[in-house]
Specification:
This protein is 32% helix and 22% strand. The chain has 12 helices and 12 strands. A hairpin with a 2-residue loop joins strand 4 and strand 5. Helix 5 packs across helix 7.
């Protein structure tokens, strides 16, 4: 069996130092295989985006710093590379689609220049050919009248069109891995569906792997092959999307499932929100960080931190109380 394209092993990222240091990513491990879509889900502040930025070494230093672990991409540990070599990888072999395209695109440069630049830089393609490639990419993401759009600026596009431009930029150098950080958060529901369908279709065509960061479990059900659920800077459950939806084990995962509407839900059944607020990463409670919000909490949960435990074929969760003991099965 071939090795995963990306292996994140015991990744830890901190902000600040001393007693006030915040561990935003705490001993996180997961793999991504070639051509696979892996979703990372959780509430705001759970560490999803910092995990993505850590992979590309984009965490601002100071105040942030990767303090432990390995990030193996094609067998190369990205944490050991110089900044110059990381620039060769960013946008070339690993691309990222950011959450808000208006802050990611340069307002003073044309769309054509911004898409053609990485092609010229990484693929050493002359500018004329790079512009022709940029036009092809805009056609590929179904941008109307792509040729004339090359000379326009980001403010002349809607949010959905700007996100299509970001996808075109991500695909420009045919990367092996694309990281999409909440790519549809600022878009209305119909445009969200279009963008996600387009992203899935294009990654399938190119064979690129995709890390999809989202808080929307509906998105995960439709587009992901595997899921990592994060809470308090840690992965607390991981499984295939089918297994996770059919048999969620961690109380937090079950809480997320219970708080979203489902097509098979009976009329009149109320959604059940997770009580309380996500934890302050600077002041995590002792034991399991979910224990103040958990309805299944026992004394051990307040004392000991659970590690990921195997619960089936490629299904792992970090909880001291099994669903059988809690009466959920």
């Amino acid at each position: 069996m071939s090795k995963p394209l990306l292996q994140v092993k015991n990744l830890t990222t901190k902000f600040g130092s001393g007693p006030g240091a915040v561990t935003a990513v705490n001993n996180v491990s997961f793999d991504v295989n070639a051509g696979e879509t892996v979703a990372i889900v959780g509430e705001s502040g759970s560490g999803k985006s910092i995990t993505a930025l850590s992979i590309l070494r984009l965490v601002p230093d100071p105040p942030g710093k990767i303090v432990g672990g390995e990030i193996l991409f094609d067998g190369i540990d990205l944490t050991k590379l110089s900044e110059e070599k990381m620039r060769d990888i960013r946008g070339n072999r690993i691309a990222m689609i950011f959450q808000e395209p208006m802050t990611s695109l340069n307002p003073s440069l044309t769309i054509g220049l911004q898409i053609a630049e990485p092609i010229n830089l990484h693929m050493k393609m002359p500018w004329q050919k790079a512009y022709a490639k940029a036009k092809e990419l805009l056609d590929r993401v179904r941008m109307p009248d792509a040729q004339s759009r090359l000379e326009t600026h980001p403010h002349q596009f809607s949010g959905g069109m700007r996100q299509r431009i970001m996808i075109a930029m991500a695909l420009a150098c045919q990367p092996k891995l694309i990281i999409a950080d909440e790519p549809t958060t600022a878009l209305d529901v119909t445009v969200q569906a279009q963008i996600l369908e387009l992203l899935k279709e294009l990654t399938r065509e190119t064979g690129s792997a995709l890390i999809l960061i989202t808080h929307d479990l509906g998105v995960v059900a439709r587009y992901a092959d595997r899921v990592c659920v994060m809470y308090g800077g840690k992965i607390i459950e991981t499984a295939s999307a089918r297994e996770l939806y059919g048999n969620p084990l961690h109380p937090y995962t079950r809480g997320l499932m219970a708080s979203i509407p489902r097509l098979d839900q009976q009329a009149g059944v109320r959604l059940v929100p997770i009580k309380g607020q996500p934890p302050n990463l600077a002041q995590l409670p002792p034991g399991c960080s979910f224990n103040p919000r958990c309805s299944d909490v026992v004394e051990r949960c307040r004392r000991d931190v659970p590690a990921l435990m195997k619960a089936g074929d490629k299904h792992m969760h970090a909880c001291w109380v099994s669903p059988h003991e809690a009466g959920h099965v």
